[in-house]
Amino acid sequence: MTINEYLEAVTDAPTIEDLWSMHLEKMSEYGFDRLIYAFTRYRTGTSLGDPCDFIVLTNYPQDWVQEYIHEGMYFHAPMIRWALDNEGACSWSVMADMVSSGTMTPQENRVLEFNRKLGLTAGYTVSFKSVSQRSKGAIGLALPAGAAQEEADAIWKEHGADLMVMNNVAHLKIMTLPYTPSERSLTKRQREVLEWVGDGKTMQDIAMLMGLTSATIEKHLRLAREALNVETTAQAVLKASFQNQMFVVEQ
User: 115 and 15 in one domain?
Assistant: First the structure.
């Protein structure tokens, strides 16, 4: 698949799963066989939000994902620290520089050793441009276990511009596709009620439009709030909108 064919296929991808499968295959053509993509819309000065609300796409082992993402190890990862403060591409050689200069913290060194056990020693991180203070996205591209960072740097020197374009297009497309975390899924009824709320309808309006009682509408809203782990209906509408779970075109 040429780059143009890849870009056309990605921009036409109907689901995140389809896009991610194509992206894994395309990046492997350049030698990067392990990828992790992550995006949050809930960044603050001290947190990146609830990991259950992140978009996380990866072909890493599930036990690695559990410890790295859900148990919070990522917060001390040197390349994530870099991605939060920068945009563009960065060689993982910066971690060796941190070790040699003695600037790596004990927490960062623990992450480094954790990743070494999986053979994550050579690669690049791409930090995507943010349009909001609350959002941040990045992707890590790793070479096979045993590869040297010099190999990754040589690949990037030759193909870096193409790799940046492909990863940026994939990221922008992901932003347009529905993403439903397993812990945050909505039923069809819950989505429909939230859509009417988003359109400015009152409880009485929604009950009439859906042919249900106001009590039933409130039940669906309560369950939607619980599913999305928020306190108010306004927050539920916002989060469902962020995740592209509202006004979804059925495939």
Answer: yes
- Model confidence pLDDT, tens digit, residues 71-127: 889 999 999 999 999 999 999 999 999 999 999 999 999 999 999 999 999 999 999
Q: What is the DSSP letter of 103?
A: -
User: How buried is residue 49: exposed, middle or buried, by Cβ count under 10 Å (0-12/13-18/19+)?
Assistant: middle
**What is the CB-side half-sphere exposure of residue 34 using CA atoms within 13 A?**
17
| CATH code for position 188 | 1.10.10.10
Domain boundary residue among 135, 153, 174? 174
Q: What is the pTM of this model?
A: 0.85
| CA–CA dist 164, 187 (Å, integer) | 37
